[in-house]
Design brief:
Elements: H1 3-11, H2 20-35, H3 40-43, H4 45-53, H5 55-72
Length: 75
Amino acid sequence: MTDPERVHDMLGHSASDYGCDACFEVMDEVAEAQAAGEDISRRFPEVAAHVRDCAACREDLEGLRAHLEDEARGR
């Protein structure tokens, strides 16, 4: 984690946060886009901002993306 990320994590969430429920609704699409190499901040800017701020959603997204990548490799 870089220093700016650490500071951002300590300061908390934005007032315009997308929210966990809304993030969860599109998480499969976001994970598929990430696994395909897309920059999710362009296609899903609200989700990208939310997962930057929310450790739980970030971990879920990373896990789902890793699963998709493993599946694509035939594991």
